[in-house]
Amino acid sequence: MDNPKLKELLEQLHAALEQTQPVDDESRQLLAHLRDDIQTVLRESSASSRASLHRRLDAALAQFEDSHPDLALTIKQVLDNLAQV
Questions:
Q1: Beta strand spans in the chain (E)
Q2: Whose CA, among 2, 37, 68, 69, lies 20 to 30 Å from 30?
Q3: What's the predicted TM-score (pTM) here?
């Protein structure tokens, strides 16, 4: 990965996801897909992998904004950084 700031944010987000306790199956699945997408971007950082991560992050932000505000803040930071890449 060429962007050290994005890499750092993705690693922080991955750690935050590991600490998040989802309350329903939909949230659990979303978190699992996010973890997979993060790992893919960290490995290959292609435009398509970043686009996939961006879509899931948008969905996660909407879903976790009220229930997990700290996680939502980290997601927002990653989205902002992805927009700059």
A1: none
A2: 2
A3: 0.77
